[in-house]
Specification:
Blueprint: E1 2-6, H1 10-17, E2 24-26, H2 29-35, H3 39-49, E3 54-57, H4 63-74, E4 80-85, H5 88-99, E5 104-109, H6 112-120, E6 125-128, H7 130-135, H8 140-152, E7 160-163, H9 169-178, E8 182-185, H10 187-192, H11 197-213
Parallel strand pairs: 1-2, 1-8, 2-3, 3-4, 4-5, 5-6, 6-7, 7-8
Helix pairs in contact: 1-3, 4-5, 6-8, 8-9
The protein binds erythose-4-phosphate.
Length: 218
């Protein structure tokens, strides 16, 4: 399972890249607004820190402008993944860019029907938003199960299921159980995976006992 971080905060990205466990980055216009930096240079900087896929989202909603934006974003770095919304225009751009060898992440997916269309359009990634579905009383993880099962029926489709809008570690655990390809989530949710009180207590005891032996390994 690949781990992407869902942020445009370059310090947080550097911090996570340093763990050696980070496989990619996703951004969206809201995260760019939060970062308060110029979009294109920021994506370039992120691509220099992380060698895996870095999603940069188009801003337009019409086909012609979106297509131009997509080509421009794809030119920033080899690992840029152009992110397009799940609309007829977005999927047209997805097909066009994918046919030309650009990775495309289709975002704002809320149904299995939409995920089928994205796979047909050659998307590298489909991003179903589990947290936003949970927020309105649907079962976000049920959608992931459905999409993974459907994609498994068609081995020639190469679209990876990228679980997005993750709110807590349970979403990651469930994604792993289902066999989703990728998760993307805020830095603090990834960090929560490390935590367990028995690890903290156990380590404190080992440190104390080792000190009492008076020995040194180095
Ligand atoms: C994914 O690519 C999206 O940027 C993101 O996961 C959306 O998450 P949110 O619902 O917490 O805004």
């Amino acid at each position: 399972m690949k781990f992407f971080v869902d942020t445009a905060d370059i310090d947080a990205i550097r911090d996570l890249a340093d763990t050696g466990l980070l496989d990619g980055v996703t951004t969206n216009p809201s995260l760019i607004k939060k970062a308060g930096k110029d979009f294109i240079p920021l994506i370039k900087e992120i691509c220099e820190v992380v060698s895996g896929p870095v999603s940069a989202e188009v801003a337009a909603t019409d086909y012609a402008t979106m297509s131009e934006e997509g080509k421009k974003l794809a030119g920033i770095a080899e690992n840029v993944t152009v992110k397009v919304p799940l609309t007829p225009a977005g999927l047209k751009v997805c097909k066009e860019l994918s046919d030309n060898g650009t990775m495309v992440n289709v975002t704002l997916c809320f149904s299995a029907n939409q995920a089928i269309l994205a796979a047909k359009a050659g998307a590298a990634f489909i991003s179903p938003f589990v947290g936003r579905l949970d927020d309105i009383g649907y079962e976000g993880m049920a959608l992931i199960e459905d999409i993974v099962a459907i994609y498994d029926n068609y081995p020639l489709w190469s679209t990876e299921v990228l679980v997005a809008s993750i709110r807590h570690p349970q979403h990651i655990l469930e994604s792993a159980r289902i066999g989703a390809d990728v998760i993307t989530c805020p830095p603090d949710v990834i960090k929560k995976l490390y935590g367990h009180p028995l690890t903290d207590n156990g380590l404190a005891a080992f440190v104390e006992d080792w000190k009492a032996t008076g020995q040194s390994i180095l």
